[in-house]
Amino acid sequence: MKLISLLLLTGAPSVLANCKCTPTDSCWPSASKWKGLNTTVNGALIANEPLAKSCYAGIGTDPSQCQEISKIYDLTSFRESSPIGYAYPVIETCAPVNGSIAGVPVCDLGTSSVYSVNATKPTDVAAGIKFAKENNVRLVIKNTGHDVRARSQGYGSLSIWMKHMKPELQFQDRYQPSNSSCQSNWTGSAIVVGGGYIWKEVYAYAAKHGHIAVGGSSEVNIQLNDHVCMTLLTVCLQTVGAVGGYIQGAGHGPATHDFGLAADQVLEYKVVLASGEIVIANDCSNVDLFAALRGGGGGTFGVVVSATIRVYPTRPILKHSFVLAPPSTNLSTLMNATASVLSKYPALSDAGFSGNAQITRKLGSKTIYSHNFAKMLSPNVSSVKLSSEIEEAKRVMNRQLVDFLRPLNGTGLTVISKFEKFDTFQTYFASGTHESAGLNYPSPAMVSRFFDKQSLINNHKNITTMLKAIFPESNSKVQAIASLLELSLVGGGEVLKPKPNTAIHPGWRSTYLFMENFDVPPADSGLQGVRQVRQYAISKKLNAMKAAAPGIGTYMNEADPDDPDWKEDFYGDRYEWLTSVKQKYDPEGLFWCYRCVGSEGWEEITGPTLYGPLCKAK
Ligand SMILES: Cc1cc2nc3c(=O)[nH]c(=O)nc-3n(C[C@H](O)[C@H](O)[C@H](O)COP(=O)(O)OP(=O)(O)OC[C@H]3O[C@@H](n4cnc5c(N)ncnc54)[C@H](O)[C@@H]3O)c2cc1C
Ligand SMILES: *[C@@H]1O[C@H](CO)[C@@H](O)[C@H](O)[C@H]1NC(C)=O
Ligand SMILES: *[C@@H]1O[C@H](CO)[C@@H](O)[C@H](O)[C@H]1NC(C)=O
Ligand SMILES: *[C@@H]1O[C@H](CO)[C@@H](O)[C@H](O)[C@H]1NC(C)=O
Ligand SMILES: *[C@@H]1O[C@H](CO)[C@@H](O)[C@H](O)[C@H]1NC(C)=O
Ligand SMILES: *[C@@H]1O[C@H](CO)[C@@H](O)[C@H](O)[C@H]1NC(C)=O
Ligand SMILES: *[C@@H]1O[C@H](CO)[C@@H](O)[C@H](O)[C@H]1NC(C)=O
Ligand SMILES: *[C@@H]1O[C@H](CO)[C@@H](O)[C@H](O)[C@H]1NC(C)=O
Ligand SMILES: *[C@@H]1O[C@H](CO)[C@@H](O)[C@H](O)[C@H]1NC(C)=O
Ligand SMILES: *[C@@H]1O[C@H](CO)[C@@H](O)[C@H](O)[C@H]1NC(C)=O
Ligand SMILES: *[C@@H]1O[C@H](CO)[C@@H](O)[C@H](O)[C@H]1NC(C)=O
Known about the structure:
Strand content: 15-25%
Strand order of the largest sheet: 14-11-13-12-16-17-15
Number of domains: 3
Bound molecules: flavin-adenine dinucleotide, 2-acetamido-2-deoxy-beta-D-glucopyranose
């Protein structure tokens, strides 16, 4: 806190009048005002303390409690259970002393919210909004805290914490619009999902009703030191929030190829507006808001308290697992072969395959390419027809990919290919990992890009050049101890078809592959080291991706927040329209997050700490 006060005094005193109040300012609400808010929300107001406070000298120091915290600090389950737990704490201001990316030995809340409303009903949300507005306090919306762009954090903020907003899930055999005079085109089933649910819960509920929900793809969290996950796989099915930032920003996963993006599935939202009003947004009411909340990004237009989403009868699945392993640590053969594999992605996608691949580079272990792809098969067909469908799918995969690479087997590379059939989507999903396995640390350095058909086929030279820039012969250049390239073949198919009343980045409508690279800085790198790793990733890796796939953009939910071309890259040509919706529903800019729609009106006055008060931009 000291640093901040100093910064303010020496920094920009003239803007102070136009800033949100922070705890060091005299305009910060008094204890009795906070008590008043607590009464309004029936005791659900939480005053936050840094999670690892017990590891630091001063009030609250406690070695044994510190040891306990150190053990669970990286667990997703622990982070999620806290109103200030974030999966990607870009700025770590109170790590357990021996925790990762410790940086300087200070302990304060940093970008964590000062108070949180533990909301369980829409009126709690409205009370938090009203309080923030009346007292000029920065407001953030926090669900799981998985955001990689720190959009659910904010220095000196009050947060609306959605985790416990969990009215019972409702299955509708046939969708019933809240507004009964609203005719819907959708004649299938739907589930009403409260703001606090995570995908694993929605998947399980949909499966109980014999249906598939379109959600996220990670089975095991990126943080593999999550020993709960490792010993009890079922506990860590997809932990991303269902109807928070994920769905509002687009949402890709194992079912998107077949049914469209997650945002495409929304039939209606219940939303608390900046005015405190609670409204329904669907094809009939508040249509512009409905569209903005389907791709325009979380934390921007209002607080979603529930969403009604389409679900689909379950299907049998054919899974294909594939590994390409080079004989040595020389990456050149693997990169060349990977470029060939990528050139086959559009054909495999057009034949119905989708899923995730990854290349992980870690000191002391071999760098390999591996994927788990799946093809959804027809429901309710005779076993003869199903068998022939499976044979045809195998034939396509073998002809396109496996036979093509088989000549390399045993020479420069080892090629492993395996098919497996599952009776339902849920048994397939529970069968193994669909995303990165192998990174042991949260990574604040990530760059990403969309790839369309044209950028993948007949682009071997450019793709190889890009892969070599991502995995240079010596990783010491990158200054990272590990790198992961995540290749999500989640586009194509239904994703390519634009849906009415959505605001999804148009780049998605030509995307087959979404590519992300994560670099892990050494544990002791501190802020400066992390910054160097990010800078290298943006200047070398992201630029190489952009050169291989120019002009398509990237996925706002999984991108570097400091991408210099953020407006176009995150929103495509929808930005201006989204700004008009923001103006209409939140004219005062109450909902603010970095590089969210309408964020230009405000800026964080930061100094060496990288965080500070939110002020009106001059
Ligand atoms: C382990 C992991 C796996 C992932 N896997 C996938 C994946 O498979 N597919 C994919 O598409 N993405 C994936 N993501 C990215 C994910 O889409 C983003 O992290 C997303 O922002 C998470 O949303 P959240 O609500 O859970 O997180 P939060 O950090 O809590 O919120 C993210 C943003 O949404 C806002 N927000 C949250 N709740 C609400 C609400 N109720 N109303 C309005 N705004 C709200 C917040 O203010 C913030 O701006 C993954 C991320 C992680 C960490
Ligand atoms: C809010 O009230 C509850 C119940 O009285 C109490 O337990 C909690 O500590 C209060 N929160 C704050 C921030 O004072
Ligand atoms: C932190 O590291 C020091 C030195 O390596 C060690 O002595 C201490 O026990 C560790 N503390 C915790 C909480 O792990
Ligand atoms: C938040 O509220 C829920 C529901 O009332 C409660 O179970 C939970 O313990 C609360 N969490 C915190 C951290 O206060
Ligand atoms: C409903 O279906 C009609 C006819 O197919 C189509 O023109 C219209 O765009 C659809 N409306 C919505 C909101 O999907
Ligand atoms: C319900 O839908 C009708 C017809 O589309 C619309 O005119 C009306 O405003 C809607 N009512 C509400 C409460 O949203
Ligand atoms: C890796 O292998 C390629 C092709 O065989 C060769 O040209 C290159 O020099 C090798 N690189 C290293 C660092 O050994
Ligand atoms: C790279 O891959 C192409 C196509 O698979 C192949 O023809 C070529 O020989 C490979 N080059 C090297 C250096 O391995
Ligand atoms: C398949 O059959 C089951 C049981 O007869 C039925 O409930 C289900 O709706 C059917 N699925 C499809 C997609 O037709
Ligand atoms: C590659 O060779 C190994 C060892 O001979 C064999 O087990 C494997 O099946 C081969 N892979 C393919 C795709 O033929
Ligand atoms: C490969 O990259 C070069 C340089 O950026 C570009 O001119 C060329 O069009 C690209 N090739 C393809 C097939 O996209």
